[in-house]
Amino acid sequence: MSSNRDALLKRLRDEAVMIRRGLWRAFHNGGSGHVGGSSSAADMLSALYFHHLRLRPAEPDWPDRDRFVLSKGHANGGLVAALARAGFFPEDELDTFYGFESLLGMHPDIKCPGVEMSTGGLGHGLSIGLGMALGARLQAKEFRTIVMLGDGELQEGSNWEAAMHAAHLRLAELTAIVDYNKVQQSDHVGTLLGLEPLADKWRAFGWEVREIDGHDMEQIIDALDALPFVAEKPSLLVAHTVKGKGVGFAEDTYTWHMNMVTDEVYAEALAELGEPS
Amino acid sequence: MSAAPEAHQNQSRLAFGLAVTALAEADPRVVAISADTLDLIGIRDMKARLPERVIEAGIAEQNAMGVASGLATTGMRPFVCGYAPFITARSMEQLRNDVAYANQRVVIGAAASGVVLGVSGGTHHALEDLAVLRSFPGMTVIVPADANQAWQATLATDDIDGPVYVRLGGRMLEPEVTPADALFRLGRADELRAGSDVTVIACGALVAPALAAAETLGEAGVSVRILNMATIKPLDREAVLAAAAETQGIVTAEEHHLTGGLGGAVAELLATTRPTAMRFVGMPDEFAVVGPTDKVREKYGMSAEGIVDACRDLLS
User: Fold this and answer.
1) Could you list the residue range(s) of the whole structural domain that residue A48 is in?
2) Rounded CA gap, B34 and B61, in Å?
3) Is residue B180 part of a domain?
4) Which of A64, A108, B148, B288 is the most buried (most CB within 10 A)?
5) Are A172 and A234 in contact (CB under 8 A)?
6) Distance CA A221, CA A2 (A)
7) For residue A108, how many other CB atoms are within 10 A of its CB?
8) pLDDT band at A277 (very low <50, low <70, confident <90, very high)
9) Strand residue runs (E) in A89-181
10) Cis amide prior to B5 (ω within 30 degrees)
11) Per the CB < 8 Å rule, is A118 touching B97?
């Protein structure tokens, strides 16, 4: 049992490395990218796509699949890197990022295999996920819905409309993860327009909340395995993360919310990320 | 398809709710999403009979629109029920991104459009919705002329594989101008009156005044063709081009700003195919005054008199 868990953890950590390498590859191809928010989400994307979500990459529209909505759509580099690793399309497609008529643009496109919703305008995903979870309930289906939110994104009021609605519906079929990397486009979130007390806000809105280190793979899978946290309440996972995680010069700085990715920068990033052991 | 029920009380908003209820009874995928609009749209009875299929989102239109999109991705058939001024303007980004851009099968019923809420003032008028909605690729835009047509059009949305906007009236009687059993023909204008001198292309609340105007002008020897253009998008190109060819000019009439609505759609077509003399009846480039709906309509020429004047001006 323990060796199985160790093997799982190793695999998920390895996939997280590959997702980070993939997102840098995509952004290098595009010439720029949202490195910070894609990298902060990478460990959770690994756990979602290689452990938690029930998906059929060869049958992306399988009606009973779990749904994952990347509400913080600017982290699409991380999402498409995970989708490629999971087999929704070849990893070489990452070299079309930003390309003419590519399905891999800066933000997720519902036409891309594995992408559940076109996102990018912030504050949309939680309502959409609510609708998906409600669709499961109304059709007596078992699929689960997970929405990943950015922290800066929570400044959009529409999130709180959805938060109130999901709790009112006792929608335990719905989970939201806040990628709480504490940095947004122009500054640290706490300086620009703070969210604290964040967990208490969600609790007050009627959600069951857990907080984890969003880079600790054991904490991530333990939290995902515990979903829903309680019956009859939507679950919220506050994942404390580091913006740009994995490449020192990009960590915890708004300058790497989005930045140019030159050949030199790319080489430096890959060298620091290394390869799975 | 069945004839419109009298229960619609000659109010298109109620006809929409009745039709959604009828569709829901026949199809378990159909759900209504209320934004505190149970009575506005007439779905309180649906909630009593099919409680799990009326989703109350509260006064939160952005969320209501996103929820509808999410539901649609799972195979449900959501009908969003809102006030025209709020369900369009407040949730515009959700409407554009989550519904139109993601091409989800969501039907929006927008009641109290135009200056129906006249006494409420400009915050409650919806005079830009057609211009914005018809600019979204893939969006079908329908403006029923009366409650009968609202019933038929709402039933007909069942066959539309994409987002649909249905513009509805308010808590007031709407004159009956279409037969209760007239099937809705998407993208097809209905000729309500034949005529050879001038054509009035009208939609929604301006169809009845257009018919009255044709009567007045007919008494003066002017032969007026009346087209009920209930589908703004896709526009019935053939009917417009035929009117341009067979009469001396076209007057459009709508309860909407003159920028970008029905008149804009017709003008765009004619400018590139068959330049034709036109006049536009609608709301000028200003916010409407407060007042009873009929008086507000009259002030800005959205009336039989206004249409008569526009026709005479065109023919002079």
Assistant:
1) 2-273
2) 9
3) no
4) A108
5) yes
6) 14
7) 28
8) confident
9) 145-150, 174-180
10) no
11) yes
Over range B101-115, report the average pLDDT: 98
How far is the CA of B182 from the CAs of B10, B148, B177, B221, B249, in angstroms?
15, 8, 11, 30, 28
Is residue B250 a contact partner of residue B277, using CB atoms and an 8 Å limit?
A: yes
B217: Cβ–Cβ under 8 A, 6 or more apart, which residues?
B198, B224, B308, B311, B312
In this structure, what DSSP letter does residue A112 have? S
**Could you tell me if B75 lies within 8 Å of chain A, comparing CB atoms?**
yes
Radius of gyration of chain A (CA): 17
CATH of residue A103's domain is 3.40.50.970
Q: What one-character DSSP code corresponds to residue A69?
A: E
- Contact status of B98 with chain A (Cβ, < 8 Å): yes
pLDDT in tens, A207-222: 999 999 999 999 999 9
Task: Please report, for the domain that includes residue B139, its CATH number.
Answer: 3.40.50.970
Q: Cα dist. B104→A36, A114, B17, B112 in Å?
A: 31, 17, 21, 24
CATH number, domain of B265, equals: 3.40.50.920
Complex ipTM value = 0.96
The one-letter amino acid at A224: L
Would you call A127 and B63 a contact, using CB atoms and an 8 Å cutoff?
yes
Q: Count CB neighbours of A7 within 10 A.
A: 10
Residue A11 has pLDDT above 80, yes or no: yes
Amino acid at A231: A
Ramachandran angles phi, psi of A116, nearest 5°: -85, -25
DSSP state of A150: E
Using a CB-CB distance cutoff of 8 angstroms, which residues of chain A are in contact with residue B70? 69, 117, 127-135
